[in-house]
Amino acid sequence: MNSTMILMGIFLGLLTQAYALPVKNSTGLFEGKVRLKRKYSDEMLDRDEMNVMDQILEVNRRLRAPRGLTFREGDIATSFVRSAITCPDNACLWPKSVDGFVYVPYILSPLYDDMDRITIETGMQDISSGTCVKFIPRTHEGSFLDIQPRYGCWSFLGQTGGSQTLSLQTPGCMWSGVAAHEFMHALGFVHEQSRSDRDHYVTIVWKNIMAEHIHNFRKQATNNLNSPYDYSSVMHYGRYAFSEDGGPTIIPKPDPYIPIGQRDGPSALDLHKINVLYNCGANE
Question: What does UniProt give as the signal peptide span (predicted)?
Answer without folding.
Answer: 1-20
